[in-house]
Amino acid sequence: MDTRNVSIGLIGFGNMASAMADGWIASGAVAAGNLRACAGRFEALMPRCEARGMVALPDAAEVVAASDVVVVAVKPYMIEGVLVPVREQLAGKAILSVAAGWNCEAYERVIPGTNHLSTVPNTPVAINEGVIACEKASTLDSEQRDLVFSLLKLLGSPIEVESRLLSVAGTVGGCSPAFIAMVIEALGDAAVKHGIPRATAYQMVSQMVAGTAKLQLATGAHPGAMKDAVCSPGGTTIRGVAELEAAGMRSAFIRAIDAIEG
Length: 262
Hints:
Elements: E1 8-11, H1 15-27, E2 35-38, H2 42-52, E3 55-56, H3 60-65, E4 69-72, H4 79-83, E5 94-97, H5 104-110, E6 115-120, E7 130-135, H6 142-155, E8 156-161, H7 166-193, H8 198-219, H9 223-230, H10 236-246, H11 249-261
């Protein structure tokens, strides 16, 4: 099925679901009119959908009935209550979960016999630059799998991991944008401290982060080698690196992931 003809339904329309919708629409490969969503507060949902050219529907049953691919984007504790009543309607649909903590085994307990894939995306999917951790185990058939991965590739880079690694992969991909935003803010503050206007500081730092990441992806270079390439003997950069090491920067990032996975 061509992505422009596929009907996508989002059960829940919070930050992640709306980011995915924005990414699909921005890609030009998914028609906004083929996206529909339901949420707890229909009156708040309607203007958000209308602004995107999407269709707002009052409940999950109508979303499922009108969709080829069903994106489950409600809070994890709500999944069973939302999906069990529409279990029969879900038969034959491709179910794409973006709920943290819900893997293939968990879905098989609640809606056995359905076709589902568990993923954990991050918010840069909104600009087609996301990373989407995907569980290798799924119950999608081959045709559904091809379709779903075609849709995910429009949002960024889907990366498959074993079931036991889905949680930490989702944490690294899904939570780290907050950490990197803090890095951008901190370096921006440093630039402002030394006289650069804030808007210019953020533009410089964000482009530096984007460029460095793209360089690593393009070359496959080890991050340590990229760091060494900028550190001349006795130079300015190595002095800054030494200060970051003294402040425990590396261990702070590792401890942040440990705290979430704890």
